[in-house]
Write a structure and sequence with these properties.
By secondary structure, the protein is of the alpha+beta class. The protein is built from 5 helices and 10 strands; from the N terminus they run H-H-H-H-E-E-E-E-E-E-E-E-E-E-H. Strands 1, 2, 3, 4, 5, 6, 7, 8, 9 and 10 form a 10-stranded antiparallel β-sheet that branches.
Length: 360
């Protein structure tokens, strides 16, 4: 009886184990052929980090725009401050002229006897008319001196006020520039740190030979007028199709786009995902099949945002650029192929040009 119960328990345990194995997702075993995570989505950490990098990209773009706007405003403010400095210099010269006029009037008054006491002028005057003329000149001279002094005082007050305004303008300009620079550098520092964290996760997936699954990014609104687009919004072209060198055993089979880690990579046209792979020379890669029968490959990614078999629209984000696999630095390796396999590549630049997409 005990032996029968043991066998029954053993059979029950084996059935439970088989059921558990059958319930495991295909991505639980890495085969380097696009294995996905549970329910076809990446882990929570992957998704959060990818979304953080995309957000920081947007923040950095806005900060750069604000910085450039502030820089242009600063240049305009700098020009105003320089004009104010020129006006201040002119005011200083005018005050110097006023001071010279005051000295000249004072010297003339002294030579003409304007500084003598009234009693002395009465004694020395030859007749009343001469006395009256002397008093008239004296009165006019005093009035001129008073006017000159008042004008000088007003000019000096205006100069002091304008100097204070100019100094405040320079201080505000320097403060604004410092704030914008600090904001931009802070975001860029956070972005750089998040980029390499994202790349570290990609390197771990490539080393394991299995993708952790698609990370779902909030797709931007696509208002496209063309059926085809470039694989990146902003980039610099680097290694071209057919180029050679020490980096490759054979001629280069695609077009490289130099971009930082984490830049959103777009599908160049409508299609279907035929491969999501993590491992090998291309590292983390996505291959699409388009309606015209051509395939496009997006390699050395830091994250993938699609699952194998998924339908893709033109301009949809399918991953984020990186430097996984056999890569010497962050970039996107883009290929156009006649088949899904390596060795059937055609030059991507004229291929895109024929479809209305000019790279540069």
């Amino acid at each position: 009886m005990r032996s029968y119960r043991r066998r029954l328990l053993l059979v029950t345990a084996l059935l439970c184990a088989l059921a558990a194995l059958a319930a495991l997702p295909a991505g639980a075993v890495g085969d380097g052929k696009g294995a996905q995570g549970r329910n076809g989505t990446g882990t929570g950490g992957d998704s959060v980090l990818s979304a953080q990098v995309v957000k920081l990209y947007a923040d950095a773009a806005r900060a750069t725009q604000r910085y450039e706007t502030g820089r242009r405003e600063a240049e305009s403010q700098r020009a105003k401050a320089q004009r104010a400095e020129a006006l201040l210099e002119r005011e200083r010269r005018e005050i110097g002229v006023l001071h010279e006029d005051l000295g000249r009037i004072a010297r003339a008054q002294y030579r003409s006897g304007g500084g003598m006491p009234l009693t002395a002028q009465i004694i020395l005057a030859k007749d009343p008319d001469e006395l009256m003329r002397g008093q008239h000149v004296f009165s006019q001279t005093n009035m001129a001196v008073g006017n000159a002094i008042e004008k000088s005082r007003r000019a000096e007050a205006r100069l002091a006020k304008d100097e204070a305004k100019a100094a405040a303008a320079w201080q505000n300009l320097e403060k604004r520039n410092a704030e914008l620079t600090e904001l931009k550098e802070g975001i860029e520092q956070k972005l750089e740190q998040a980029r390499w964290q994202l790349q570290g996760q990609a390197d771990a997936s490539v080393a394991a030979g299995a993708c952790s699954g698609a990370v779902r990014l909030d797709q931007p609104k696509r208002d496209l007028t063309n059926e085809w687009v470039a694989p990146l919004e902003s980039y610099e072209l680097s290694a071209a199709f057919g180029s050679g060198g020490l980096r490759w055993a054979n001629l280069h089979t695609g077009q490289d786009f130099a971009v930082p880690i984490g830049a959103p990579v777009r599908a160049v046209g409508d299609g279907r995902v035929v491969r999501v792979s993590c491992g090998g020379a291309f590292g983390m890669e996505v291959v699409l099949l388009h309606a015209d029968g051509y395939y496009t490959q997006y390699a050395h990614l830091a994250a993938v945002a699609v699952d194998q078999g998924e339908r893709i629209d033109t301009g949809q984000w399918i991953g984020q650029s990186g430097t996984s696999g056999n890569s010497t630095g962050p970039h996107l390796h883009f290929e156009v192929r006649v088949t899904a396999e390596l060795g059937s590549a055609v030059d991507p630049v004229p291929w895109l040009t024929k479809r209305g997409v000019r790279l540069g």
